[in-house]
TrEMBL record:
Belongs to the isocitrate and isopropylmalate dehydrogenases family. LeuB type 1 subfamily. InterPro entries: IsoCit/isopropylmalate_DH_CS, IsoPropMal-DH-like_dom, Isopropylmalate_DH. It comes from Candidatus Fimicola merdigallinarum. Its main location: cytoplasm. This is 3-isopropylmalate dehydrogenase. The lineage of its organism: Bacteria, Bacillati, Bacillota, Clostridia, Lachnospirales. Its EC number is 1.1.1.85. HAMAP family: LeuB_type1.
Length: 359
């Protein structure tokens, strides 16, 4: 029997609703596979501003650091839109990623056969589903580089800097190759090496690390081509490894291909076991408190937690299989509802998935 401590940052809007269902699913996994999951609830985001005046209280970060993993709902909402920039709810996410050393973002873009008609792409391009994993560098590159204003050739100008150290590229590349080893062993590294010096170091370093993983087939693609290939023939991809900004853009493109924002999970991991797992969607203030949110993205986020942080592959698969099964049985929350299907709310969707695990 194994025991795991999980910090739950439910957050704002639909965050508490969807995390509640994911916690119930984990409890079911615990019962079925004989594990103990302990949950500690902490505040971050708008609710923390209301309670403590700061978006990321030190106590929250400390408890997250001491946990085996973090489950996050979503933060933010119109109530806090006018809060000063450095204390906006979304800053809590950056503070958590940075404070926990989570430099790798894993974003699967999975499309289930049962939902093929939700994709904006032609059916023949996505039939039989899609399964891509985007591995995005999360704590370096242009979002963290030197920036500011200065006098340039045409007067005042603003600048941002893309900089990557070899060490940063090595560690994200190793994480991406490890992920590829757990999948179909096919990795495409995306850069802009025809123009950017930082991309040339990226490409050279990925090639060096690839020697440690002889089983993984590696290739390189320019980011402009990659964005085109994702809509032309997305099935060619297994693992995509890329930088912070390119990953930000490509992962949104890939998620759209699959059809619904309410279905996709994500993981942020570092060197060790601790990771932060969250749906890719936000706090959806427009549907908060109405039992309308789709909890599947958050439930699949805990499946990623089981797989990547706790190495419980069998248990993770039990959750994924349960989700596929309820979708095939026709259960739908409003965001993915179509004619002839069974309309359910957040709580009911969580319950049918948890019940499916028991079968
Ligand atoms: P959003 O993802 O919250 O919502 C976009 C649309 O998708 C809305 O119509 C919403 O109802 C719908 N939606 C989102 N999740 C859904 C779900 N699980 N089930 C059904 N429908 C769902 O994005 P937004 O409206 O741009 O942002 C709302 C707030 O969330 C903002 O304050 C934003 O800053 C914040 N946000 C937080 C995170 C995060 O915590 N990781 C990420 C993105 C946005």
């Amino acid at each position: 029997m194994a025991e795991f401590n999980i910090a739950v940052v439910s957050g704002d809007g639909i965050g508490p609703e969807v995390t509640a269902e994911a916690v119930n699913v984990l409890k079911k996994i615990g019962e079925k596979f004989n594990h103990i999951f302990n949950f500690k609830y902490v505040l971050a985001g708008g609710c923390a501003i209301d309670e403590f005046g700061v978006c990321l209280p030190e106590e929250t970060l400390e408890i997250c650091k001491q946990s085996d993993s973090v489950l996050l709902g979503a933060v933010g909402g119109p109530k806090w839109d006018n809060v000063e920039n450095k204390n906006r709810p979304e800053k809590a996410l950056l503070g958590l990623r940075d404070g926990l050393g989570l430099f790798t973002n894993l974003r699967p873009a999975t499309m289930y056969k049962a939902l093929a008609n939700a994709s904006p792409l032609k059916p023949e391009i996505v039939e039989d589903g899609l399964d891509i994993m985007i591995v995005r560098e999360l704590t370096g590159g242009i979002y963290f580089g030197d920036r500011g204003y200065r006098q340039g050739k045409y007067g005042e100008e603003a600048y941002d800097t893309e900089a990557y150290s070899k060490k940063e590229i090595e560690r994200i590349a190793r994480n991406a190759f490890d992920v590829a080893m757990q999948r179909n062993k096919n990795l495409v590294s995306v850069d802009k090496a025809n123009v950017l010096e930082s991309s040339r170091l990226w490409r050279k370093t990925v090639d060096e690390i690839s020697k440690e993983y002889p089983e993984v087939k590696v290739s390189h693609m320019y980011v402009d081509n990659a964005s085109m290939q994702l809509v032309r023939n997305p099935k060619q991809f297994d693992v995509i490894l890329t930088s912070n900004m390119f990953g930000d853009i490509l992962s949104d493109e890939a998620s759209m291909i699959t059809g619904s924002i309410g279905l996709l999970p994500s993981a942020s991991i570092g060197d060790g076991r601790l990771g932060m797992y969250e749906p890719i969607h936000g706090s959806a203030p427009d549907i908060a408190g109405q039992n309308k949110a789709n909890p599947i993205a958050t439930i699949l986020s805990v499946a990623m937690m089981l797989k990547y942080s706790f190495k419980l592959d069998k248990e993770a698969k039990a959750i994924e299989d349960a989700v596929i099964s309820v979708l095939e049985k026709g259960y739908r929350t409003p965001d993915i509802m179509s004619e002839g299907m069974i309309l359910v709310g957040t709580k009911e969707m969580g319950k049918v998935i948890a019940d499916e695990i028991n079968m």
